Amino acid sequence: MAHERLSPRQKMIGMMYLVLTAMLALNVSKEAVEAFKKVDKGLTKTIANYAAKNSILYENFDKAAQTNPAKAGPARDKAIDIKQRADELFNYMQDLKIQIITTREGKDTPAVKGKEVDIEEVKFIDDNNVPSEILIGANENGKAHDLKALIASFRDDMIGIVGGKNISIEESLKSIFNTSDGLDKSGEKEKWENLNFQLLPLVAVITILSKMQVDVRNAETDVLNFLYEQIDARSYKFNKIFSLVTTNSTYVMQGNEYEAQVFISATDTTQAPVITIGNYKTTANADGTFKYEMTGDYSTLPLDETGKGVYKARASAVGQKTWGGLITMKSPDGSLVSYPVKGNYTVGESNVVVSPTAMNVLYRGIPNPIDISVPGVGPDKVKVGMKNGTISKGQVKNYKGEIFPGTWVAEPSVDPPAPNAQIIVTAEINGKQTPLAPREFRVRDIPSPVASFAQKQGEGTVSRSEILAQEACFAVLKDFDFDLRFTVTEFTLSYDDKGFNVSEASTSNRINEKQKTALTKLTRGKKLYVEKVKAIGPDKKIRDLAPIIITVN
User: Fold this and answer.
1) Torsion angle, CA of 373/376/379/380, rounded to 10 degrees?
2) Comparing C-alpha atoms, which of 188, 186, 206, 187 is closest to residue 196?
3) Rounded to whole angstroms, how far apart are CA atoms 490 and 488?
4) Residue 251's pLDDT is what?
5) In 371-524, which ranges are continuous DSSP H helix?
6) Which residues are within 8 A (CB) of 165 and not within 5 positions of it... i.e. 6 or more apart?
7) Using omega within 30 degrees of 0 as the cis cutoff, is the peptide bond preceding 417 cis?
8) Contact, 366 vs 482, CB < 8 A?
């Protein structure tokens, strides 16, 4: 039991357990045996108390997860794992107690009622043969060996959940569930199994197992309490809330719409963030999070009275401008946490603004949205043409299905392909058609997608059952703004089986019957190759995609 959390009653039970063990070792009177019964009955009540407390904790996890699934859901899932592990070890110990009693007294003994043990009903209370036969065994291959392994596994799993965030709990777990071999009374090295169970009378073994069960429930409580506290451990506290309005532009041409984002923001006036502008590097941590650090020269933004940084830059040159940096502040646990921030803006000439809505290039084979406007001139007074392509009014959707705000759609020439294209604008100014400076764009092919099978690209590990559930191979265009669809036209599934190559091809994106049959013969540890993948996109070009290597789990 975790010493720093024991009640006076629990401490007394522990002392009685130690004293009675010593007395039994000296073969004292039957009174010591009867006293051991009282200790076991006290331990049984303590187990029931812990079970009731833990039941309330699990209900708290469920309520927290229902209220805020994103925040408390992962903790609730870990709590379920804790319960499964604790119940597994507890029930194994209970089964050992039942096996020892029924082996000595028969299956009809009144001492065993279902899964419960009544120590008062045990007749052969001082038998020391059956417990040793079951737990130690003739060749030291008894069930105490398995019990030791289960205890060590439970201990390591609980320590892993604490993860170095509470040294007191971790040290308690290491002490309570210490399965190291030790020294006997003569100073000779002895195995953990023999030190705990060899040649002890039945009542002592039952009480020792009950004490171990108390340790399991106590450890379960400690780790659950720790886990529940972690739900809010990294929650930020704010003492000032204010409204905020942001917009891409305060200048709107007649006939267009003004759009603004309105939301509530919060800040902590007791600590100001540090906002640095410049280049930064990103490093992946082992737990899946990321670490951000500034590199090279950088500057710190001044803050206004609400704690907001104010970024200013002189528009000295025409073109697309990007900037970024880190916002660093102290988290609730005292550590410094950095969040990346990025921004961009376009600097245009005073007479015309022509900029692509989603990117600074045009792609062959698809419609590209373009915003075209002339300050002070209505859209009905603007004429647009294109060199090395065609341009017309229309709408284009991005990968989210949202309509780009561009009022024009440009389509570069495909045959023959040109490396560049020009947008030519003529505006009616003061009743006169005035040609404006043309704007040149780079023209590129649509990037190739990547093959995807069982939601894996490149390499990955997938369970055998998930592989067998697959119906098709897909082509995914990653990190691309347009809503484009690629279709797999053929692919091959293959793997090595006892030195022979098993390979089946499909002439569509669907898994055919031969491939399904081949997949059923896959075993864990083998590598499945999804290769010779071809896909076609909206530009009608056939693409050869990189293979996928999947390790079957």
Assistant:
1) -150
2) 206
3) 6
4) 41
5) 464-468, 513-519
6) 226, 230
7) no
8) yes
Dump pLDDT digits (tens) for 43-59: 989 999 999 999 999 99
Averaged pLDDT of the chain: 84
In this structure, which amino acid lies at residue 303? L
Mind spelling out the 3-state secondary structure of 422-458?
EEEEEEEECCEEEECCCEEEEEECCCCCEEEECCECC
Residue 8: partners with Cβ closer than 8 Å, 6 or more residues away: none
Condensed to tens digits (0 to 9), the pLDDT of residues 407-434 reads 788 999 988 888 999 999 998 876 788 8
Closest CA to 64 of 51, 81, 77: 77
Cβ contacts of residue 195 below 8 Å, gap of 6+?
Answer: 181, 182, 184
- pTM of the complete model: 0.45
Residue with tokens 């205890």: 151
Q: What is the DSSP string of 181-205?
A: -EE-TTS-EE-HHHHHHTT--HHHH
Q: 51: which 2 tokens?
A: 């079970």
Q: Are 399 and 482 in contact (CB under 8 A)?
A: yes
Residue 294: burial class (beta carbons within 10 Å; 0-12, 13-18, 19+) = middle
> Residues 480, 399: contact at Cβ < 8 Å?
yes
For residue 6, the one-letter residue type is L
**φ, ψ for residue 383 (rounded to 5)?**
-115, 140
| Angle CA 106–112–116, to nearest 5 | 155
d(CA 217, CA 210): 11
Q: Which residues contact 207 (CB under 8 A, 6 or more apart)?
A: 17, 20, 36, 39, 40, 43
In whole angstroms, what is the distance from residue 543 CA to residue 548 CA?
15
What are 215's two structure tokens?
């340790």
Residue 115 carries which side chain, given as an amino acid letter?
K
CA angle 373, 374, 377 (to 5 degrees): 110
Phi, psi of 234 (to 5 degrees): -110, 25
8 A C-beta contact, residue 519 and residue 468: yes
Tokens standing for 317? 């040159």
